[in-house]
Amino acid sequence: MALLQIAEPGQSTNPHEHKLAVGIDLGTTNSLVASVRSGLPEVLADEQGNKSLPSAVQYLEDSILVGHEAKNNAASDPENTLVSVKRFLGRGLEDINRLYGDLPYNFVEKEHTVNIQTRQGEKNPIQVSAEILNKLHTQAIATLGDALQGAVITVPAYFDDAQRHGTKDAAEIAGIKVLRLINEPTAAAIAYGLDSGKEGVIAVYDLGGGTFDISVLRLNKGVFEVLSTGGDSALGGDDFDRAIVKLLLKNANVTAKLSAKSLRKMYDLGRELKESLTINETVEFNVSLLEGDIVGQITRAEFESEIEALVKTTLRSCRRAVKDAGVELEEILEVVMVGGSTRVPLVREKVEGFFNRTPLTSINPDEVVAIGAAIQADLLVGNKPDSDMLLLDVTPLSLGLETMGGLVEKVIPRNTTIPVARAQEFTTYKDGQTMMAIHVLQGEREMVDDCRSLARFVLKGIPPLTAGIAVIRVTFNIDADGLLSVTAMEKSTGIESSIQVKPSYGLEQSEIADMIKASMSNAKEDMAARMLAEQKVDAIRMIEAIEMAINESGHLLQVNELEAINNAIEALRVSTAQANGDVIKTAIKALDDISQPFAARRMEDSIKQALTGHSVDNV
Amino acid sequence: MAISLTDAAADRVRTFLTNRGKGLGLRLGVKTTGCSGLAYVLEFVDELQEGDEVFEHNDVKVIVDAKSLVYLDGTQLDFVKNGLNEGFEFTNPNQKDECGCGESFTI
Fold first, then answer.
1. How many domains does chain A have?
2. Are residues A548 and A419 in the same domain?
3. Cβ of A280 under 8 Å from any chain B Cβ?
4. How far apart, in whole angstroms, are the C-alpha atoms of residue B48 and residue A219?
5. At residue A399, does pLDDT exceed 90?
6. Helices A300-325 and A237-251, interaxial angle, to 10°?
7. Are A432 and A496 in the same domain?
8. Domain that holds residue A403
9. Where is the signal peptide (chain A) (predicted)?
10. Number of domains observed in the structure of chain B
11. Among residues A287, A304, A321, which one ends one of the domains?
């Protein structure tokens, strides 16, 4: 019996046509999937009850681990266990080295992007992200009981076109239909229902494990514009743990350098104490290290004085973001808290003091982004009667063209609501010019070198005319997911360059197709592995049954028959140790054949026993 | 004629209604569709229609239109968990047969 959910009045679906959709928070450290069921948005848990999946993928010899297991193996197999690959999406090697320094991975430089060498070959960050999405997708189908219509996936507000493309490609490889990509702070605001609230300015303060983001949004006619973003990509709750460890070691007068194992133990303790100090004023602890035991207590006040400087750093970013947004602090209507570290009382207190507003904290800050995405997904597949109210997003950065002198001419300014198409006319620079190079750029700066190059293409076949006479119309088109295409047309002849503009950091369609194919061929391997496992189970079951039969009625066998059966059992046992289903199958068949006469004799024997001593009338 | 809820179902419906912030109760119904002829309807109710019958269990109102009630008389609605999946399940004494998926049925 299928299990049903409650629909809005008049929105009941027909059998097998349920409009199932999910929101996915594809995070740097953890990823979540959420859905709206019977009107209630909830994060979906896995079989173990875990609501968040570590964004970690480990490549083993012939399988792939995703999530908790992979994360736990990161220390023992760092080169093949990829964590936080979101940082590498749409980035070149130069960027990665500059931003993140020493990483344990074997990067392979590609044009404008990187691959990572693992024991299963080179992996692109997009493929790695696809593994994470695939796991969440599978889990969602198991929970919701049917195939999904699609998913809304969140991305950081500062993600550029290449990074958004990368995210969308990853979803495609994982077999997920992307209903829309939305900005993480926008999702958090939707979770609190701010999209249907008063128009005005909203700040989203997102303090996660390792990163801090502040976004200033403006809600205007149902659309969230990103006014500014800021933050620190190397500041988060992990720094709070570190601050506690430093304090504990100082108080215990430990000056010697701790072993890696002890240090790890101390960081785990630091995290525990931090979480405990959210509720308690004082916490006692007792930890035994190789170097000796540390016993003591820590108060919230001590902890707070250690992290105060860190929290102040986030407030400086807030001040800058508010200034960049061109708004006054008093204009901010609501402050939304995102990320587990916003549970720390001092953080709440300082944020409240800075914005002079009580921040919104009623939704679990680890889940709020996924919940907002789920609500948006539910709306997009049409589960709400008033679904004409479609929330739109805006372009995060301006898009433009290179003009003479290395200048950037903006065609679509940032914060334009999407989908959008804008055209601008350009002309030739030289007499008789028959070609024009079009260089598409993204960014707010004026010079080409300071903006990000997205694509280049050439319009050929311009009629040779005096400079400044030909009119070339360039159209920028951004679809609902924030993805861009550019067309150039010479107006007098109508010649159009129908070149597909691909961001230079993205993947070619053929590469995506290859990856999808690769995931299919993996499916075959997965199935083979499953068949093998089933055959092994069959083999063991058969051996047990025959051994039991020999125990019960071995007297029915001649010595040489018993020996033959035992040999066949042994052969089957040996075959199960091999990873070859055909070998096991043959061995099962051999044992079955050789034990047939024995089975027949057992049958006759039991019939005989049943009949012995009974008169024919009683049978 | 009667329709009933299990305590588990009543609890969940109450939670969903509270979360939704409005609504009189839960509508149970049948419509003619699906591979076996009839399918169950489960919706929130904002206003009563003419001919609606209202049943109550643990303060949760269950609303059924007169036509559906013929097919649903004696039905009990339960909320069950099946592995990761969870949702509402109809136990309908009038039901003769259902399609493999259990989403549509015949009388």
1. 4
2. no
3. no
4. 36
5. no
6. 150
7. yes
8. 397-506
9. none
10. 1
11. A304
